[in-house]
Amino acid sequence: MLTKLPALDDNEFLNQFESLQLDKDYFNHLGHLRIAWIYLGQHPVDQASILVCKGIKAYAESLGAKDKFSLTVTDSLVRIMAKRRGVIEDRSWSRFQRWNQDLTEHALSVLHQYFTPERLASNTAKVSLLSPDRNEL
Predict the structure, then answer these.
(1) pLDDT 10s digits, 88-114
(2) Which of 20, 25, 43, 72 could pair with 125 as two cysteines, CB 3.0-4.6 Å apart?
(3) Measured distance CA(111)–CA(1) in Å, rounded
(4) How many other CB atoms are found less than 10 A from the CB of residue 86?
(5) Three-class SS state of 106
């Protein structure tokens, strides 16, 4: 039986994430995007990307899942979100999710518009920032 997680406002979500206390059930793809969304609302894109990448990597390592983190994937998603965030008037997280279901449900397909699958899945992409080989971000 699935139990519904309690709703957390952005401050609670961020505080629990930064202290590595966020319930691991929140730490899924949507949770990663939400962290990016919060940081993008507080910082310029370059700083937000650094914070997102460092935070997700640290949280993944705290869960024993350090091999799942990809620097290129995470940085690229933050940058894509920043561009999309810049063209919407209603800057609510729920509105962003509704209008960006490709990112929430098919992020790899979005990333493959910029990167070949081989480049994105490479070990180098996990530990280094690779530039796109299809289209510029």
Answers:
(1) 777 789 999 999 999 999 999 999 999
(2) 72
(3) 34
(4) 10
(5) coil
